[in-house]
Design a protein that fits this description.
With about 300 residues, the chain is an alpha/beta fold. It folds into two domains: about 5-215, P-loop containing nucleotide triphosphate hydrolases (Rossmann fold); about 220-295, Alpha-L RNA-binding motif (Alpha-Beta Plaits). Helix content is about 35%, strand content about 30%. The chain contains eleven helices and 14 strands. It has helices at about 40-50, 70-75, 90-105, 110-115, 130-145, 160-175, 190-195, 210-215, 235-240, 265-275, 290-295, and strands at about 5-10, 15-25, 30-35, 55-60, 65, 75-80, 150-155, 180-185, 195-200, 205-210, 220-230, 245-250, 255-260, 280-285. Strands 6-7-8-3-9-10 form a six-stranded mixed β-sheet, with helices on both faces. Strands 2-1-4-5 form a four-stranded antiparallel β-sheet, with helices on one face. α6 links the parallel β7 (about 150-155) and β8 (about 180-185). The longest helix is centred in the middle third of the chain and has 15 residues, at about 160-175. It is globular and about 60 Å long. The two termini are about 35 Å apart. It binds adenosine-5'-diphosphate and magnesium ion (MG).
Length: about 300
């Protein structure tokens, strides 16, 4: 067992951020920790990595109690915090050498990680000059420098553009072949794209814990993942017959929830033409997980 969380409660003053949370993550699994903002995802991850203590309950990582053996736990765990604090004035390679020093990890690991995360062309740039996608790669490299068994990634793709999103997801999938990974997200499709299993948390309580493959299937609803060349009116998209809901991801990227019975794709293409927009990509996905998530969280 890589992560064992048993009856964990976390209080911030009067507020219960986590309420009697229990789950296990097996060695080698890639787990999606899914929940709306404020659900308690970051709090749980900070407890697993030993950055803050739980109020009640126990957490073990690789069989080690995180409160009693926090230093040994940190050797086993790589952590990408939510806001990925990086030293923007440092050069990529210099920063990674610095982090390797902190972990007493061999310097050779820096070159291995630069290679693995695709940072070679950027390694002599200042972190502050990098795009958000490359900064996330630096964050991932930083988390993996000491070759930990378990990776805890807090919203690793938030704020990325669609291309960066795909690249970072692919990178996480690669990493997941060798490591136990727990990643948090509020995007359901992310879980379907990357994770073996999903744990849904809402208001500090675990609401579902299932294999991703068990959640997919017929649901009567599909999600169109559409990328226009420029932003369009979400309200106008919503007026297309069969469209139930429109979520703006960023730029020209939208998730359109539609009835499976009425294929709305031709209408979406027509919409693009009428509005002088080009469709860069469109993908249709099953919406089972999305539905489960929304019915659980009321979002
Ligand atoms: P998520 O990562 O799922 O968005 P968080 O774990 O950050 O959720 O937060 C869970 C709840 O705990 C929220 O209501 C948040 O406002 C609260 N919270 C988080 N950190 C603190 C803190 N340091 N002090 C007080 N409340 C906090
Ligand atoms: Mg968070």
């Amino acid at each position: 067992m890589s992560i064992h969380v048993s009856n964990v409660t976390k209080l911030y003053g009067e507020q219960k951020a986590l309420n009697n949370v229990s789950f296990d993550v097996k060695s080698g699994e890639v787990i999606g920790f899914l929940g709306p903002n404020g659900a308690g995802k970051s709090t749980m991850m900070k407890i697993i990595t030993g950055y803050i203590p739980q109020s009640e309950g126990t957490v073990e990582v690789c069989g080690l109690d995180v409160r009693e053996e926090s230093l040994n736990v940190r050797k086993k765990v790589g952590y990408l915090p939510e806001h990925n604090p990086l030293y923007t004035d440092m050069y990529v390679r210099e920063y990674l050498l610095f982090v390797a020093g902190l972990h007493k990890a061999p310097k050779e690991n820096v070159d291995v990680m630069i290679e693995k995360t695709g940072l070679s062309p950027e390694q002599h740039k200042r972190i502050g000059q990098l795009s958000k996608g490359y900064r996330q790669r630096v964050g991932l490299a930083q988390a993996m420098l000491h070759d930990p068994e378990v990776l805890i990634l807090d919203e690793p793709t938030t704020g990325l553009d669609p291309n960066q999103l795909v690249e970072i997801r692919n990178l996480i999938r690669e990493i997941g072949k060798e490591k136990t990974v727990m990643l948090s997200t509020h995007i359901m499709q992310e879980v379907e794209a990357v994770c073996d299993r999903v744990i849904i948390i809402n208001k500090g309580v675990i609401a579902a814990n299932q294999k991703t493959s068990d959640m997919q299937g017929k649901s009567g609803v599909v999600i169109l993942n559409v990328e226009f060349d420029e932003p369009v009116s979400a309200n106008a998209l919503k007026k297309i017959d069969g469209v139930k809901r429109v979520q703006h991801i960023d730029g020209g990227h939208y998730l359109i929830e539609a009835s499976e019975a009425k294929d709305v794709r031709s209408d979406v293409f027509k919409f693009a033409v009428e509005n002088g927009r080009t469709i860069l990509q469109v993908q249709q996905e099953k919406a089972k997980l999305e539905e489960i998530f929304r019915s659980i969280t009321g979002k």
